[in-house]
Structure formats: C-alpha cells, structure tokens
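Running log. JK asked me to keep both predictions on one page so they can be read side by side. First protein, sequence followed by its tokens:
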Amino acid sequence: MALDFFISRTSCLKVLSYYTALVLFSQVISEEKLKKAYFLLLILEKVLFFKKTNYKKPFF
C-alpha cells in the first residue's frame, strides 16, 4: 500500500524502475509512518528528478 501511494504521488518512476522502487520501499510503512515519511519521499523525488534533468549533452 505504501508503494502504491508513493507511485501515485510522485513521478519518481520516470527515473526508477518499478522493481527498484519496490526494493527501496519493501518494508511496509503504516499509515501513521507514511504521513511522517511523505516529506522524505518528496525529497527523494526532487533529488532523483534533479539528477535526471541536470545531465546535459555537450554542444559539440
């Protein structure tokens, strides 16, 4: 359930495969802990998105 929530609330899977996300969140997060961990999930998404978009091809 926590993984489904993560998938539905983030665009992280554009960077990560479903299997990788499943491994990262393989431990079940309860509803109470999910609310506390949501902030950390948002940070993870921002870091992964930044890494993906920060890559630029050289002009030559």
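And the second, directly underneath as requested:
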Amino acid sequence: MNWIAMIISGLAYFLHILVDTFDWGTNFFYFNHKNLGFGMLYSKEEVDKIYISFKNPIAYFDFKYYKNKTVLSLEIFFFILMVFSIYFFSPKFFYLIIFYFLALLLHILRYYHLKKFEQNK
C-alpha cells in the first residue's frame, strides 16, 4: 500500500515528460541545451521564426508554458493529487514533497531569470 502514492507521483511526472517530448521536445536535465523528442507542434521553419524574436531561444518554451492557464491548472491538480496520495497511502514518504518544491523553485527562478533577460533587450 505504501508504494501506491509513489507510483501515482511517478506516473504524473512520467506523463509530464512524455507529453513534452511529443509536443516540442524535452531538454533532459538542461545539460546539452538540445531538445530531444518528436517536436510535433512546430516544423523546423516555424521554430526558427519563433526563436528570432527571443534573445534566448529557450525562453519561448518557458513563456508559453507559464502563460498557459490550462497547463498550470493541470500542474496544480496533479500536485494536489500527489500530496493527497502520499499523505493517505504512505505518510512516511511525505518528506519527498521537498524535492518537488526544490524542482519547482528551480523552474520558477529560471522563468524569472529568462523574463528579466528578455525584458532587457
């Protein structure tokens, strides 16, 4: 019963990464600055046109993600589902939520850094 919460949390994270690989690609761990995946939303020509309007091309994906209310709502829903499932099914693993907040903090700091960088054009 303890692993149910871990499986639900892992499934939510896996689906998030999987969907990213299909729509515009995923930059795993930000090491190589190259998106991997199918990138089915945009053709190569469209991506090149989009990137021209940004000083840092990666900013496009962050801005598109954080300005989409549907995506943010789904993220909040899955976070609440994760917290409740950990709390009810395996409370001894509740400390793992700290890792979620650390990852969220890194993403938000990156977003605001890119926003500040783009505003100083």
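Observation for JK regarding the second prediction: The helical segments are 3-23, 44-52, 58-66, 69-89, 97-119.
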